[in-house]
Here is the input.
Amino acid sequence: MLRSIRITLAISGVLALLAGLVLLIWPIKSAVIITGIFASYLIIAGLVYIGIGIFSGNKGWARIGHFVLGLLYIVAGVIAFTNLAAAAASLAIIVVVFIGISWIVDGVVSLTLLGQDGSRIWTLLYAILSVLAGVAVLTLGFAAVPFFWLLLAASLIALGIVQIVRAFTLGKSV
Here is the structure.
């Protein structure tokens, strides 16, 4: 069992390391490939929803809703495939905006917990940093995308290396 866990950790570590290196070495190509995978998912999900709409026992709005949702997914996937680079840029902007907004909301929610938390200073510091980071990301807009891409690549490389080391050292002290 320990051997299986070690092999699994090693494989996941190598995959994370390779993914991080690919993102770092070929950022634009890898973004386009990821967008292509996402567009493929949209088309497949669209076909599934259309199938549910056609073949399910649902009646009325449920059947129509599945069918319309399927068509929307397929249209989105086809549009993404028509220009993968533009779709990748659009997807990156959407993700960055989502992160910025979520950090602001997280900071505001943390502020509401100030009276209920035993660590007021840390909660306040977290809330302030979260709101500032969210505002900074939204202010930077598209310029924040390369930073997040670099952070993702560096994180995957670091996590991959640590996972590989864990795989080789797991159970050694037992």
Q: What stands out?
A: The two ends are 14 Å apart (CA to CA). Residues 18 and 40 are 23 Å apart (CA to CA). The first helix runs from residue 2 to 25.
